[in-house]
């Protein structure tokens, strides 16, 4: 193994809590104590690792625990949903330092979306934080070519196909950037916080305006061969349905159970007089109702809103049951606006999975909310960014310079030399 490979291994074992002392690193990697000491000392000199308290002695000289120096750099994370935008500045372990949420229509297109992101990040990144910006990571609600950092024919993102999102982020912020599906980042974020209890095989269902899914398999994010893994919302649930999905097909799960479908059905219920609660909400917003109106109606005890949420849970659970039998996860996390309805959504999901999946796949299965105060996406963005920054090849590009600023995520060739701000040649 090269020096950068061993350093990457050491850093990621410390980050994951697999080994947090020099003896443990040596024992679990099979590397000699001299090599481990050299790599740990290198990481400490680079400001990537700090020493903590003395670990319990197992005989011989006691060792100090090691942890990532999370305050050295910060990550800008942006989660574009179908109807919301969450932007946050986090430290290197995903702790949120500043964030902002806002209503945003992804259908407004990439240029308007980027301009909004620039405005918000300009407010969040104080001069002190901006000086420590190491990376940007963005999530979008559609398929992504992760290698290129571009959305690929996203069903609900008009104008985004092949848009060079990563390239534009790197050009503006002058740091390495990565782009992934929003549900993937959410799954990575919640797994990074719950791995010890959730296991290394989890599913995360994001049920909001649209429906997405992130999948962690054997401790790794599963994107599939081309990056389209997890597109749960566009699986077919009703072959004969004449309800057209926003992707153009008929009978998709999203067309019957997604938040935008519930908004459609809620408006019909309000106009027909079936729900006084929704009718009152519609008076204030005559153009439409939102999934938030339906969730709040459910919480307020409105029978129609509860019926819509429950039916959505049943449909999502029925599709999820097949995945549970095929993939056999230890944990399924529910997140998104519909999950905020609580048991009215989660209960039908769990009941459908238990009824339709194989007993061996469900007898120890845990289905629960993510429980991270809706921060799992930006935590996942930080996790992904640091995962990528600590790859051996990336370490080789930026570590000699001291930090990743002025760099790119997919470079070819040696680092540029000379005065001023250097960049990694493409």
From TrEMBL:
SUPFAM superfamilies: Actin-like ATPase domain, Winged helix' DNA-binding domain
Biased composition (Gly residues): 416-426
Membrane-spanning intervals of the chain: none
The organism's place on the tree of life at top rank: Bacteria
Record Gene3D superfamilies: 3.30.420.40, Winged helix-like DNA-binding domain superfamily/Winged helix DNA-binding domain
Chain residue ranges for the region called Disordered: 396-426
Record family assignment: Belongs to the ROK (NagC/XylR) family.
Name of the protein described by the UniProt record: ROK family protein
Naturally occurring in which organism (per UniProt): Streptomyces hyderabadensis
């Amino acid at each position: 193994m090269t020096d950068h490979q061993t350093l990457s291994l050491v850093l990621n074992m410390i980050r994951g809590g697999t080994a947090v002392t020099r003896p443990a690193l040596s024992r679990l990697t099979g590397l000699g104590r001299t090599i481990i000491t050299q790599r740990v000392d290198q990481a400490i000199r680079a400001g990537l690792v700090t020493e903590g308290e003395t670990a319990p002695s197992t005989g011989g000289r006691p060792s100090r625990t090691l942890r990532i120096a999370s305050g050295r750099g910060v990550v800008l994370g942006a989660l574009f949903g179908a109807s919301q935008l969450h932007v946050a500045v986090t430290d290197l372990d995903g702790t949120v330092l500043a964030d902002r949420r806002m209503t945003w229509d992804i259908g407004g297109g990439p240029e308007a979306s980027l301009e909004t992101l620039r405005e918000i990040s300009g407010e969040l990144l104080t001069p002190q934080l901006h000086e420590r910006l190491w990376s940007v990571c963005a999530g979008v609600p559609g398929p992504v070519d992760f290698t290129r950092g571009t959305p690929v024919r996203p069903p609900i993102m008009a104008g985004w196909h092949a848009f060079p999102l990563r390239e534009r982020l790197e050009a503006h912020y002058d740091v390495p950037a990565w782009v992934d599906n929003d549900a993937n980042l959410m799954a990575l974020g919640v797994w990074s916080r719950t791995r010890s209890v959730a296991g290394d095989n989890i599913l995360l269902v994001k049920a909001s305006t649209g429906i997405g899914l992130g999948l962690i398999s054997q401790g790794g994010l599963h994107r599939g061969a081309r990056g389209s893994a997890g597109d749960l919302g566009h699986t077919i649930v009703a072959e004969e349905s004449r309800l057209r999905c926003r992707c153009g097909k008929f009978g998709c799960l999203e067309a019957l159970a997604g938040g935008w479908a519930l908004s459609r059905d809620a408006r019909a219920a309000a106009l027909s007089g079936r729900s006084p609660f929704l009718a009152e909400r519609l008076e204030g917003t005559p153009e439409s109702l939102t999934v938030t109106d339906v969730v709040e109606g459910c919480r307020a005890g409105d029978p129609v809103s509860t019926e819509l949420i429950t039916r959505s849970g049943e449909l999502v659970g029925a599709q999820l049951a097949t995945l549970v039998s095929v993939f056999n996860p230890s944990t399924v996390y529910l997140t998104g606006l519909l999950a905020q309805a609580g048991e009215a959504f989660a209960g039908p999901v769990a009941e459908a999975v238990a009824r339709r999946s194989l007993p061996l796949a469900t007898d120890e299965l845990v289905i629960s909310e993510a429980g991270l105060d809706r921060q799992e996406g930006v935590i996942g963005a930080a996790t992904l960014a640091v995962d990528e920054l600590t790859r051996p090849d990336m370490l080789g590009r930026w570590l000699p310079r001291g930090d990743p600023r002025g760099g790119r995520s997919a470079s070819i060739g040696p680092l540029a030399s000379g005065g001023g701000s250097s960049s990694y040649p493409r």
